[in-house]
Amino acid sequence: MQKVYKRKWHGLFFLDYRILVKKNPIFDICPNCNAMATLERLKMPSKIHRLPHLFGFKIYHCTTCKWDGYIYLYRRTNSLKKILLNYLIALFALYVLSLILYYFFDDIMAAIYS
After folding, report:
1. Apex CA 52: angle with CA 48 and CA 54, to 5°?
2. What are the strands of the beta sheet with 57-62, ordered from one edge?
3. Are 48 and 69 in contact (CB under 8 A)?
4. Domain residue spans in the chain?
């Protein structure tokens, strides 16, 4: 069965506007033993461990060295210049649109009140 493509607001006009992208730490290097792809996700042991989860951290466990710790899930995108350029183009287009609408409605209001 084929997945249905859902368009999201950050992918509007097929441009990606996300500055922070989510990574999958399971395929990452263990911070303690530098082993590749040995991290496993752990369930939250208690309610107090949910607090770092609100800020983007999740608890992981290394299967080789038995390390337990929090890993930040987001990283900065590689193409930051392209994203900032996309934001600049969008702001310029909004500015031009606001000028056009201002002059268009200004002419209509002048015609109505005169």
Report:
1. 105
2. 39-41, 57-62, 68-72
3. no
4. 1-17+78-114, 20-76
Smallest CA-to-CA distance from 83 within 10, 23, 4, 3 is with 10
Q: What is the pLDDT of residues 50-105, one digit of tens each?
A: 788 788 888 888 999 988 888 888 877 777 777 788 788 888 988 998 888 888 77
Kindly report the backbone phi and psi dihedral angles of residue 60, in degrees, each rounded to the nearest multiple of 5, phi listed first: -130, 165
Residues 35, 46: Cα–Cα separation, whole Å: 28
How confident is the model at residue 96, as a pLDDT? 92
Q: What number of CA atoms fall less than 13 Å from residue 58's CA on the CB side?
A: 14
C-alpha span between 9 and 90 (Å, rounded): 13
